[in-house]
Design brief:
The chain has 516 residues and is mostly beta strands. The chain has one helix and 40 strands. It is globular.
């Protein structure tokens, strides 16, 4: 049973002045990137950016980054945050709430959501974080979810899909004394619960360390949750998973739950996951990249996997040997390729993983031998060319919360048949100009090789506003113009819109703002 309370806001912060103020503030960006590591803040906690089951950094499509981390103030646990529009210059850290183990996620409309364990250790706080003129405010939130008949709440995580917000956590059930994985779903405004608390794992044994990931492109309302179950009867442990699949048909929502399923992976511990889902008639399929460690934690394994109605299948895997717990963390999986960061000998490393295998030499992200730990890669960056990562650094307090943005290192790889695979996307939608725009905007698209495609403008609800192109495009640069009108020739209202490009093998999008 869950008893819900709606407390007054913990920290007094200014609220929004309006929709257009928000949009304009989001546009304060810079073309610079943090080529070297940048210090975001200090923390008295050696686990400031722990743990890698949840995300400590989120980035909007307008390049604003938000970082949350753990600290203490007057011997009270506190969740801190900071933000940057260029990755080089960071705001002064501010208190978000008293609590621990924060987690972030970002929605398709650029709203950032967060959760953390409340200071009372008996409830989980959930909130969305709106941009204000000089800080980031939580307005009348957070919403506290008081969890009864359970103790030792730990490892909260949060994910958002097109219509829902999903919260997960680990807790000990007082009835059987075992740890289980639980979830609850809310509407996007966090105003009402869409489900009661429900348990995701069904088998016996302790289930721990849940990690959650939703569909990267928001094409379907799919969320996958993974955890590690210690099966004492078999003296082994395995990776379990569950799915939350929401189907929207003519304004009616139906949720399909897949509970207590087992991945074909034993004697390992799940660490991080990235998901790309695809809609089928009555179900879904998903490509995903898993990062998991062995029991002794002196190496980690990455696997490209596929989930269908038949279950999970491992396509290919690779291994990295380390001298310490590697704490691997995974970013967006695009065309079965993603950035993975880990720690070894007090140094954060990066490698580009394609089809489950690393195809380039690892590169240092932090300086070497600086006692770096707890790397955390940004998820849902909407970028295939760069990635953002934060970590904790230092031997003694105050520890340093560090950030770096890096270019992804793609190289041509060879498949089993000896054919070269070209990475990553065949298409790239470049920033439209002007943005925001009033009358019209130009949308440049880079095409690597000729292909058939459909390109259109969509609104926040995912409805087609206007088709811009249907048919073949040639390699090179394509420029399309949208005049701010719908398919019927009517001028559309101000707001956030998306240009989306579809082919048989890929689907990409970019956001733009129309201001009247």
């Amino acid at each position: 049973m869950i008893k819900e309370t709606f407390p007054r806001k913990i920290i007094s912060l200014r609220s929004l002045s309006g929709f257009f103020t928000t949009l304009l503030l989001l546009l304060v960006t810079s073309s610079s990137i943090a080529d070297e590591a940048v210090q975001v803040a200090h923390s008295s906690s050696p686990i400031a950016t722990a743990f890698n089951n949840s995300r400590k950094i989120a980035r909007t499509s307008f390049d604003r980054r938000v970082v949350v981390y753990q600290d203490s103030l007057e011997q009270r646990p506190v969740v801190m945050w900071a933000y940057s529009d260029d990755g080089l210059n960071w705001s002064n850290p501010a208190i978000l709430a008293y609590g621990s183990l924060p987690s972030l996620t970002v929605a398709e409309n650029d709203r950032i959501y967060g959760c953390w364990i409340n200071e009372d250790s008996e409830s989980i706080a959930v909130s969305f974080l709106e941009p204000a003129s000089d800080n980031w405010a939580n307005n009348d939130l957070p919403r506290l979810i008081t969890i009864e008949n359970m103790t030792e709440i730990n490892y909260p995580g949060i994910e958002v899909t097109g219509h829902s917000v999903h919260l997960i956590w680990q807790a000990k059930d007082q009835s059987d004394g075992l740890f289980h994985i639980y979830s609850q779903t809310f509407d996007n405004e966090l105003s009402q619960s869409m489900s009661n608390q429900f348990r995701l794992n069904l088998n016996g044994g302790n289930s721990i360390f849940p990690t959650i990931a939703g569909d990267l492109e928001f094409d379907i309302d799919l969320t996958l949750i993974f955890w590690t179950t210690n099966d004492y009867s078999q003296q082994t442990n395995y990776i379990g998973y569950g799915s939350i699949f929401e189907k929207i048909t003519e304004g009616t929502s139906s949720i399909m739950l897949g509970l207590g399923q087992s991945a074909p992976l034993t004697d390992v511990n799940i660490q991080s996951v990235s998901v790309r889902g695809y809609q089928l008639d009555d179900f879904f399929s998903a490509n995903l990249v898993l990062a998991y460690t062995t029991k002794d934690q002196n190496l980690f394994i990455t696997s490209l996997a596929e989930i269908t109605s038949e279950g999970m299948q491992i396509i290919d895997s690779d291994t990295i040997i380390t001298n310490q717990d590697p704490m691997p963390t995974v970013d967006d999986v695009h065309i079965r390729s993603c950035a993975i960061c880990w720690v070894d000998n007090g140094t954060i490393y990066y490698g580009q993983n394609t089809d489950g295998k690393f195809h380039a030499s690892s590169m240092p992200v932090s300086e070497e031998n600086v006692s770096a730990n707890y790397p955390n890669v940004c998820y849902k960056t909407f970028r295939w060319d760069i990635f953002d990562v934060v970590w904790t650094e230092g031997d003694v307090p105050p520890y340093r919360v560090m950030y770096r943005r890096m270019n992804k290192s793609y190289q041509q790889s060879v498949n089993d048949k000896g054919a070269l695979q070209s990475l990553p996307h065949n298409f790239e939608i470049l920033p439209n100009f002007p943005n925001p725009f009033n009358l019209s905007t130009t949308i440049p698209i880079q095409v690597l090789k000729s292909a058939k495609t459909e390109i259109g403008i969509y609104d926040l609800q995912g409805k087609l506003v206007k088709k811009l192109h249907t048919g073949s495009v040639s390699a090179g640069r394509l420029e399309l113009i949208w005049d701010g009108k719908n398919q019927q020739g009517d001028i559309v209202g101000s707001g956030l819109y998306f240009v989306r490009l579809h082919t048989d093998s890929e689907r990409i999008s970019r956001k733009m703002i129309l201001l009247k």
